[in-house]
Design goal:
- By secondary structure, the protein is α+β, with helices and mostly antiparallel strands.
- About 50% of the residues lie in helices and about 15% in strands.
- The protein is built from eleven helices and ten strands.
- A hairpin with a 2-residue loop joins strand 9 and strand 10.
- The longest helix has about 35 residues.
- The protein is globular.
- It starts with 6 loop residues before the first helix and ends in a 14-residue tail after the last helix.
Length: about 375
């Protein structure tokens, strides 16, 4: 079986890549780093492409495409350090059904149907009983993009666990403009995706704001998209380093001809290809509703989190002193990779889940674990 993008999926990714390159080339991204807002032109252009509703159900006007299609798009977003919540918005709209779509329209009639959204599936929020029904309380320390959007999809319930046992969590839509919600901008590690802390105190929860999708499904898709974004950034680091090694001269010859550097580049090329294969299999497993989808996602997210970081760190080393300057901007790719590695479960958390699942297998290693060996 061959895992790869179809011609249509590749074309879709290329189209998003060209749009990002035209509207937000790297110099513009670097100049806009550490700002609390993003370019509205980019948001409008991305909305026109339909990327927000790429995986949304057809019942709410979406294209109902699969995880593999989403990965093709999000890899390009990582490659170009897209300063807009593409993966978060795509995921949020994919989780919304007719009831939530009607609720959003009633609550915010002037909002665009493809409005940007934030997502937080980490711990911090819990339910409480209120006079008019359930309320939500808690604090989310850092939520990427929360300062610039109105709606947040959040997980509420017991502490997040990647164990194989079911999670006692529910997904809810939170109106960040509600009086019981406080949003404070914070500076996170990734300067190209501004974050904010979100505090909820007795936030009233209408029935229509409760999403029916299970939290584990949302967590798997969030982990997959975070890994795809990290892969895109790592691919760009490898490409930039390859170009630099061909141009930088030392002892009257390109430093790319030095054997030690060749070995590093070869290892990183293998890492990038391995990341791509693991990611595509996990996306396929989600689309096919395979019984090993949880494990495949755990393999992909844990491997990509570490391998992408290694590729980015090697890129910094091989670029020499210039890579350590603020103006050069290579650190922005590393920051994006580190932020993605921390989202939807760290490498350690996913490996713990994978180990628990493997120990429960009576006939040895599961095929989905092959990339970890």
């Amino acid at each position: 079986m061959e895992f790869g993008f179809t011609h249509e999926q590749s074309s879709m990714g290329d189209a998003i890549g060209r749009l990002l390159q035209d509207l937000m080339p790297f110099d513009a991204v670097r100049a806009g780093a550490d700002r609390s807002q993003w370019d509205e032109r980019l948001g409008a252009a991305l909305a026109e492409t339909g990327v927000a509703r790429l995986c949304a159900p057809q019942a709410v006007g979406g294209l109902a495409l699969g995880a593999v299609d989403a990965v093709a798009v999000i890899i390009e977003c990582g490659r170009h350090l897209a300063p807009w919540p593409v993966s978060e918005t795509l995921l949020a709209h994919a989780l919304i059904d007719e009831a939530q779509a009607a609720y959003l329209k009633d609550a915010d009639p002037g909002a665009d149907e493809d409005c940007a959204m934030a997502v937080s599936l980490g711990p911090g929020l819990s339910f409480a009983a209120g006079p008019a029904g359930r309320t939500v309380n808690g604090v989310l320390p850092v939520v990427p993009w929360a300062a610039g959007v109105r709606w947040l999809v959040a997980a509420v319930g017991q502490d997040v666990s990647l164990s194989v046992s079911p999670q006692a969590q529910e997904l809810v839509l939170v109106d960040l403009h509600h009086a019981s919600v406080r949003v404070d901008a914070v500076q996170g590690l990734d300067l190209t995706s501004p974050g904010a802390s979100v505090s909820l105190q007795a936030y009233p929860l209408p029935d229509d704001a409760l999403l029916v999708r299970p939290a584990r499904e949302a967590r798997n898709r969030a982990a997959l998209l975070a890994a795809a974004e990290a892969l895109g950034a790592a691919e760009r680091c490898l490409q930039l380093t390859n170009e630099y090694l061909k141009e930088r001269m030392q002892f009257k010859r390109p430093i790319g001809t030095f054997q030690a550097l060749k070995h590093i580049m070869a290892d990183d090329a293998v890492r990038v290809e391995s990341m791509r294969v693991a990611l595509l299999y996990a996306a396929w497993a989600i689309d096919a509703k395979s019984e090993d989808a949880d494990m495949a996602v755990a393999v992909a997210k844990s491997y990509v989190s570490d391998a992408a970081r290694t590729v980015a760190e090697n890129a910094v080393q091989l670029h020499g002193g210039i890579a350590y300057t603020w103006e050069f901007g290579l650190h922005l790719y590393l920051r994006r990779i580190l932020r993605c590695a921390a989202q939807a479960g760290t490498a350690r958390e996913h490996r713990e889940m994978l180990a628990a699942a493997l120990l429960d297998q009576p006939f040895g290693l599961h095929p989905a674990a092959a990339f970890q060996i």
